[in-house]
Amino acid sequence: MRKIYASFMGVILMLMTNFTMAQDHKTQVLILIHSDHGGTYELAKEVAKGVERSGKSRAVVKLVKKSSNPKLSGLAVATVEELPNYDGIAFGSPVYFGNISTAMSEFLAKTVDLWSKHALQGMPATVFMSAGSGAGRELAMQSFWNTLAVHGMILAPMGIQGNDKIDQSIPQGNTVLGTTSLASLTNTERPSKSERYLAELQGISFAKVAAGLVGIRDNRERSKNDKITDLDDKQSVNQRLEEKHIVLPKIPQPAGNYHPYVRSGNLVFINQVALKDGKIFKPGKLGVEVSEQEVKKATEITMLNVLSVLNDAVDGDLNRVKRCVQLTGIFNTEDHYSKHADLMNVASNLVVTIFDDNGKHARATFGAASLPLNSSVEIQAVFEID
Ligand SMILES: Cc1cc2nc3c(=O)[nH]c(=O)nc-3n(C[C@H](O)[C@H](O)[C@H](O)COP(=O)(O)O)c2cc1C
Questions:
Q1: For the chain, what is the mean pLDDT?
Q2: What share of the chain in percent tops pLDDT 70?
Q3: Contact 280, 273 (CB under 8 A)
């Protein structure tokens, strides 16, 4: 009897734990934008506020492309691969000739792989846009919908919401498909208070749709794709750099008629020596002018230079690095030296620390009679990016 009672209590405890875990799960909403002048970003912040208002959803705003606008420079750039990780995506873009912007269109054009895997099928989506005069803005919203519908996303329109509360004495960007802002109309600051209010309402209703559809999509789609991990489990490469206190140096300027990197297809080719603050760190030949310890430090500096160039090649989003393909370490050594592998492990370990399994690479090392600028080391690297 005691045994039966104990098992019964065990089952109850398990059910209660699962229930609490389900309650703890916060819906993850990506607010994916392109913005030139910041108007779309202003709307995105309101949508994010609305999404987070319920307390059950978390919103993250990311760009489709790195921006030189200082207002946007702190925002991360999203990768195509991370899109299926979310429970819903709110897309925001400027209106370009009654259509979505070029950068948004280019980003969506890269989603063919997701489309063929049905990776976004059944995921809720909503759209908002910043316009100038507003000419063609509903056409633009609809053109957004065309692409998202092909992905099988569940499109959440705005409908007629909040119109009774907005200031009707001036033109406002309300549409039934989603919020817009009429940025070139000068009679008030844009987005106007009413447009901000509508964007927040859109965020609130979108969070409800996203939360309501979580279970359905989890069963049908997530289980199919083993590459999809829960957002909480996936640590971004840039976060890992921060955690390990790894600071990338400024990109060394080319010392001749060449580029810091060349991209050919999905491969990026980079070559660096041990430049630190414009000078070679501890120049010279191992065993003659410099010690093994000093060459190891020079190898670390060289690899950080490589990573800094790589970071530039992926527009500051190292999550776009698919893998490190090959590293070649060349060391300035005497003829009889044979412990090149020990020296190169410094570079290899650094790459694996940063990229985990994707950092594991093929490798070659060798000694040379001399190296450019009398550096003790040169590293050649090949990475695959998206
Ligand atoms: C190439 C181009 C085309 C545009 N076409 C339109 C348009 O058809 N209708 C409109 O209302 N505004 C149009 N605009 C204005 C932008 O939509 C407007 O400036 C918007 O607020 C920019 O958003 P942002 O501040 O997020 O960059 C266009 C702007 C550009 C650069």
A1: 88
A2: 89
A3: yes
| Residue nearest to ligand 1 atom 3, measured at CA | 96
pLDDT in tens, 158-183: 999 998 999 999 999 999 999 999 99
Residue range 8-35: mean pLDDT, rounded: 62
Domains in the chain: ranges and CATH: 2-234 (3.40.50.360), 242-385 (3.30.1330.40)
Ligand 1 binding residues, C-beta < 6 A: 35-40, 94-98, 130-137, 183
pTM of the model: 0.58
Give CA 151 to chain center in angstroms: 20
| Nearest atom within ligand 1 for CA of residue 99 | 8
Distance CA 284, CA 295 (A): 9
The residues near 259 (Cβ < 8 Å, ≥ 6 apart) are none
CB 180 within 8 Å of CB 129: yes
Q: Which atom of ligand 1 is nearest to the CA of 140?
A: 8
Residue 78 CA, ligand 1 centroid: distance in Å: 22
